[in-house]
Design goal:
Number of strands: 22
CATH class of the largest domain: Alpha Beta
CATH superfamily of the largest domain: Aldehyde Dehydrogenase, Chain A, domain 1
Oligomer: single chain
CATH architecture of the largest domain: 3-Layer(aba) Sandwich
Radius of gyration: 23 Å
Shape: globular
Strand content: 15-25%
Largest sheet: 7 strands, mixed
Helix content: 25-40%
CATH topology of the largest domain: Aldehyde Dehydrogenase, Chain A, domain 1
């Protein structure tokens, strides 16, 4: 199989690549060089994609075939994982070591989705427990909801995509994928791979275009039964407002809080937190942002954290030794630098970094921050972390919860009582003990509360979101 063939335009509908009157340039995020142009969708193309998906839905694929297709897809990606990793590094700016890890995780996500395709089932219902229903018996079926619109972000252009596409195919739902316009080439490669794996036409369709135009049209389309979106809270709120009665799953932002108590192995915590604050240039929802450190160890932890940060290599993401690459655009890098400068003007102290070089922002460490500063209150989505001292564990829990977000949090402590207190108290979708907020296994339920979203991802849980219960009753 050869990837990114000349015929692969970026607009893939009903098993065929199509052209359009408008094309989008995709650039190398470190050098700025144009990698390729892709065909952009218009409303007519969305109509065609929905019609193709609806037609495919009327020809169900048996569960064992869906499972086999997903396994073949994983095998083909494994054969070409170097190609996928290099493309992620180029179009997404992610360091090659992180891009390679992402591809490996995508293989796991597809394999888990293949397993879930064989596990979809209902349950029997004891109707004789209801007076007057003694002669009835019945059960539930889990049936696919219908056509799924999957809107994916730039920061994980293969794994977050297959977290939507894999469960949709496993559930028997045709899917229309709209990847980020900044990173569509990895999705083009996935489309070629799914086709080579034997997925029938119409079950996967790829459309590229601006979210405010193509995305809105897709979300509002009456032929769509479910929308799954990963991105910013404002866009998530907009999608929920315009989606009508469609099922909506939203995985949104976070300003990930992490607690390091004095009874923990704080040197190990410093190493882990530095890696997870600046990996992928901090451009993922559970990237470490707020670090609450017990006062007795604050100075020693700060020195250790700065030492670990200084070990990180910044530069070209295609260099396998680089840890921190560029942000997705120079405009985003400028925004992050503006937020840091604003915090410094308001009294924060700079312990390290704070410099921008084009689209690259050096790993930045702040302290003496206030809760109302953007770098604390909002999601930075860049390589910036703030060290915040606290006196009591209860104070740390309260300050961590002082957020509009609630995706994941990390807590470092060797006291079981404190660990349980954190698990009960922290208002997040995930509480990670003795690891950072950035930990995620692809089989776990993943999602947040409040401004961090609604619904859960992870193949098993996504399949549940993409299917609905049908009750069957026999009157005997």
């Amino acid at each position: 199989m050869r990837l990114l063939q000349d015929s692969a335009t970026g607009l893939y509908i009903n098993g065929r690549w199509q052209e359009s009157d408008f094309r989008i340039e995709v650039t190398n995020k470190y050098t700025g060089a144009v990698l390729r142009t892709v065909a952009a969708a218009n409303p007519a193309a969305i109509d065609d994609a929905v019609a193709a998906a609806q037609s495919a839905f009327r020809t169900p694929i048996p569960a064992h075939e869906r499972s086999a297709i997903l396994r073949r897809t994983a095998e083909l990606i494994r054969e070409h994982r170097g190609d996928f990793a290099r493309m992620i590094a180029q179009e997404g700016g992610k360091p090659l070591k992180d891009a390679s890890l992402e591809v490996n995780r995508a293989l796991e996500t597809l394999s888990l989705s293949a397993e879930e395709a064989r596990r979809i089932h209902g349950e029997t219902i004891p109707f004789d427990a209801a007076p007057g229903s003694e002669n009835r018996m019945g059960f539930t079926l889990r049936v696919p909801k219908g056509v799924v619109a999957a809107i994916a972000p730039f920061n994980f252009p293969i794994n977050l995509v297959v977290h939507k596409v894999g469960p949709a195919i496993a559930a028997g739902c045709p899917v229309i994928l709209k990847p980020a316009t900044t990173t569509p080439l990895t999705a083009v490669m996935l489309a070629e791979t799914l086709e080579a794996a034997g997925l029938p036409p119409g079950y996967f369709n790829l459309v590229v275009g601006p979210g405010g135009e193509i995305g809105d049209y897709l979300v509002q389309h009456p032929g769509i039964r479910m929308v799954t979106f990963t991105g910013s809270p404002p866009v998530g709120e907009h999608i929920r407002a315009i989606a009508g009665l469609k099922e909506v799953v939203l995985e949104l932002g976070n300003n990930s809080g992490n607690i390091v108590h004095s009874d923990a192995d704080w040197k190990t915590a410093a190493r882990i937190l530095a890696q997870k604050a600046y990996g992928s240039a901090g451009q993922f929802c559970i990237s470490v942002q707020r670090i609450f450190v017990h006062q007795p160890i604050f100075d020693a932890f700060s020195r250790a954290f700065l030492d670990e940060t200084a070990k990180l290599k910044v530069g070209d993401p295609l260099d396998p030794t680089v840890d921190v690459g560029p942000l997705i655009t120079e405009g985003e890098a400028a925004r992050v630098k503006d937020w840091v400068d604003e915090a410094l003007a308001e009294g924060a102290q700079l312990l390290g970094g704070g410099e921008r070089r084009g689209s690259v922002v050096l790993p930045t460490v702040l302290t003496d921050v206030r809760p109302d500063m953007k770098v604390v209150q909002q999601e930075v989505f860049g390589p910036v972390a703030s060290l915040i001292a606290y006196d009591t564990f209860e104070e740390a829990l309260e300050r961590l919860n002082d957020s509009a977000y609630g995706l994941q949090a990390g807590v470092f402590t060797n006291d079981v009582g404190r660990a349980w207190q954190a698990a009960r108290t922290i208002e997040c979708g995930g509480v990670i003990i003795n690891d950072s907020s950035a930990y995620r296994a692809d089989l776990m339920p993943y999602g947040g509360v409040r401004m961090s979203g609604i619904g859960r991802e992870g193949p098993r849980y996504a399949v549940e979101e993409m299917t609905e219960l049908r009750t069957v009753v026999f009157n005997l």
